[in-house]
Specification:
The complex is a heterodimer. Chain A is mainly α. Chain A has helices spanning 5-30, 35-40, 46-55, 62-74, 88-123, 128-140, 145-159, 175-209, 212-219, 224-232, 237-261, 267-276, 280-308, 310-313. Chain A contains 14 helices and no strands. The radius of gyration of chain A is 24 Å and the shape is globular. The two termini of chain A are 14 Å apart. Chain B has a single domain (2-47, 86-293), classed as Orthogonal Bundle (MetI-like fold). In chain B, 74% of the residues lie in helices and 0% in strands. Chain B has helices spanning 2-27, 29-46, 48-51, 83-118, 123-135, 138-149, 153-179, 183-190, 195-232, 243-250, 259-286. In chain B, helix 2 packs across helix 4. Chain B is elongated, with a radius of gyration of 23 Å. Classes of the chains: A mainly alpha, B mainly alpha. The interface between A and B is large, with 55 and 44 residues.
Chain lengths: 315, 294
């Protein structure tokens, strides 16, 4: 088969999305015991349990349920929340701007800092700057984000009173207020990815700085910062783009926890509240949407990767 | 003649090699630091009933919200429970969960990886399932699975083991794919060794280095992720103490009784940092190709 590489990646994403759909379908069937009884709660009557069983189609054979799940998905129906009196899709759409804003602001903080720290650490390799960046990376994978978030609220919201401690302001009520509400949660979220991005940038940069063309550039008298930025940094863009895609996934994953601390009404909070309220159809639908989003995100990174690196395109 | 000559060499060569790895590890600063932290924490967790005589769930309302003092080194919480005792008992749970997740995801990941590498017809399906699992950030996958399995330490272990399994499987598969093409494996196959024997005797032992490195990091992630799950109310349910749920309970008093959330958070950080440093050391010594140069 001689498919275009991009097309090949697209084709490969389809079975992954199908498997994600099967896995999310299975979520409800992992519930210990009778799912209908678990969802109805411990003090529900037999009638209530039966009603939920019929409502969710749990009275049918599992294979039939799976087929129906795919039929529904094909119609764009992700299910209906048991608690919210709302379809999963509309519940998600309502909260999407919050999570999207949070992730976007966090990404906008992570990328410049992460890249700059990485380049600095590579250039000043072995010095305290390098060690500081590595330490930040280590702390990023060792300290719980929710704990830092609470400490941050105590410092910046309670003690100093600089920033709101919770809540979300939509962008159409003023960009300033929107940003003020998001800057603290987004910074905490970013803090955990800056070190990771810096580490990746650093090692990509070190690989490039060892290349012959860097020596050539220096030898022919190109200024130092031009050597580093134009000849060095531009060649690290490929790994950095890939890592940035991973980081966006991690930021969305991390937002589930951060939204909880800052009471931001986003998709993460929707999922956690759904879990605590045993609203499994909602959890199932949101997890499926998350899964599809991440598969598409990975696909986009691949596409971007192909665009920035001609070598991959012609592979 | 040759037999006699071979004997002493074998006797000396083996222990020396083993000690060499150990010596390198002991000489590695961050490994030594990480290992010391983990040993101390494990000892403290094991000796919890000796270090404190208070029941971690005993409520003494008259002592509620006391700041740290000689009687209550980490203070008390809103129910008058001793935070030091709860953090200590929480250590046992956290370390147990970290270890179980590492072992379980290691065993599962090694099985999937080796089967994928050795039985090529199963490989595409297995790897697509792994891709689907890996599409989710591990924490989100664990939240979904944890939700389905219900709040308890054992569901946290299963959820996290599944969440970290795909990465381990990919790693083992990649190593196994290289190893199975090596001459000595071919020699074993030619001399009639079956698939199982080749996997068990030749492929798995040679994947051990990278696997061990990976699992030490899984251990660290698991401690952190378990804390996050209990913080969200999806992990170990109260009143049993877990580091995550102590922080969660202390959150409402974060300003006037900062000690409730401060100490368990520090404990999580120290344990995870210790395990990460230990893993860094293992990586540098066992798997030098991955060493972060600097």
């Amino acid at each position: 088969m001689t498919l275009h590489p991009l097309l090949r990646r697209l084709v490969r994403a389809i079975p992954i999305i199908l498997i994600v759909a099967v896995l999310t379908f299975m979520l409800m069937h992992l519930l210990p015991g009778d799912p209908a009884a678990v969802i109805a709660g411990s003090d529900a009557s037999v009638e209530a349990v039966d009603r939920i069983r019929v409502q969710l189609g749990l009275d049918k054979p599992v294979v039939t349920q799976l087929v129906l799940w795919f039929v529904r998905l094909a119609h764009g129906d992700l299910g209906t929340s048991l608690v919210l009196d709302q379809t999963v899709l509309s519940a998600v759409m309502e909260r999407l701007p919050v999570t999207a804003s949070l992730s976007a602001v966090a990404l906008a903080i992570t990328v410049p800092f992460g890249v700059a720290f990485g380049v600095l650490a590579a250039y000043f390799r072995g010095t305290w700057i390098d060690q500081g960046v590595m330490m930040l990376a280590l702390l990023g994978v060792s300290v719980p984000s929710f704990w830092i978030a609470i400490l941050s609220v105590i410092l910046f919201s309670v003690t100093l009173g600089w920033l709101p401690s919770s809540g979300y302001v939509p962008m159409d009520q003023g960009v300033g207020q929107w940003l003020a509400a998001l800057i603290q949660p987004a910074s905490v979220l970013a803090l955990f990815q800056i070190g990771f991005l810096a580490r990746m940038t650093r090692s990509a940069m070190l690989d490039v700085l060892d290349q012959d063309f860097i020596r050539t550039a220096r030898a022919k008298g190109v200024s130092e910062w031009r050597t580093i930025l134009k000849h060095g940094f531009r060649n690290t863009l490929i790994p950095v783009v890939t890592v940035t895609g991973i980081i966006l996934s991690l930021l969305i994953g991390g937002s589930v926890i951060i939204e909880q601390v800052f009471a931001l009404p986003g998709i993460g909070r929707l999922v956690v509240q759904g879990i605590l309220a045993r609203d499994y159809p909602l959890v199932q639908g949101v997890m499926l949407l998350f899964g599809i989003t991440f598969v598409v995100l990975n696909l986009l990174v691949d596409v971007l990767y192909t665009m920035v690196d001609p070598r991959v395109r012609n592979e | 003649m040759s037999d006699v000559a071979a004997l002493p060499i074998r006797e000396f060569a083996r222990p020396r090699r083993r000690f060499r790895t150990l010596r390198k590890l002991v000489a590695h600063r961050s490994f030594l630091f990480g290992a010391t932290v983990m040993v101390l924490l494990t000892a403290a967790a094991m000796a919890a009933p000796l270090l404190t005589h208070i029941d971690p769930t005993a409520m003494q309302v008259r002592f509620r919200l006391r700041p740290p003092s000689a009687a209550f080194p980490f203070g008390t919480d809103a129910f008058g429970r001793d935070v030091f005792t709860r953090v200590l008992y929480g250590a046992k749970l956290s370390l147990w969960i970290g270890l179980s997740v590492a072992l379980l995801s290691g065993a599962g990941g090694a099985a999937v990886g080796v089967v994928g590498a050795q039985f090529r017809r199963l490989d595409p399906l297995l790897m697509r399932v792994m891709d689907a699992l890996m599409a989710f950030p591990a924490i989100l996958l664990a939240i979904g699975l944890g939700a389905a399995l219900g709040p308890s330490p054992s569901s946290v272990i299963i959820a996290l083991a599944v969440a970290y399994l795909p990465r381990t499987a990919r790693l083992v598969r990649a190593s196994a794919l290289v190893i199975r093409e090596l001459e000595y494996v071919e020699a074993a196959r030619v001399s009639g060794a079956g698939n199982l024997r080749i996997i068990w005797k030749h492929i798995l032992p040679n994947c051990m280095g990278p696997l061990l490195v990976q699992l030490s990091f899984v251990f660290a992630y698991a401690i952190l992720a378990d804390a996050a799950l209990s913080f969200l109310g999806i992990g170990t349910p109260p009143p049993a103490p877990s580091w995550g749920n102590i922080v969660s309970e202390g959150r409402d008093y974060a300003v006037e009784a900062w000690w409730i959330m401060l100490f368990p958070g520090l404990a999580i950080s120290i344990a995870t940092l210790g395990m990460n440093l230990l893993g860094d050391g293992l990586r540098d010594v066992l798997d030098p190709r991955l060493k972060v140069e600097g």
